Amino acid sequence: MKVKMMKLHKDAIIPKQQHKGDVGLDLHTIDEGTLRPKGKALLRTGLAVKPPKGYEMQIRPRSGLAFKHGITVLNSPATIEPTYRGDVGIILYNTSDEPFKIKKGDRIAQAVFKKYEEKVEIEVVDELDKTARGAKGFGSTGV
Length: 143
Fold this sequence. Notes:
This protein is mainly beta.
């Protein structure tokens, strides 16, 4: 698959697969600062992207940052719409009680490209079929 990517900032780093066969590509930030405990920040990548037809770019947390520092992507997985051509921003959230320092060039998230249906048709109906679960939602299968 070929993805078109453009640098919007001189410090932007084009993402790459760290290991052959990896699904995710590490995304770097062009910003610096400190993420307060229980705080959030919108960090820029300095990149614009055009996925191939029928694909979206999803932004997901990096497992090492999540496990070691409690840093996650707040709206994970975030969707970068295939029609968006602006700077790919990432909303990081610090779940820990410790401040987290962010330096320019840090790998802060990963991108995964996923197929999607380009046309979704909604059919409005008066009734849906019954299932064993029914309307049981959050916590309905136990903790």
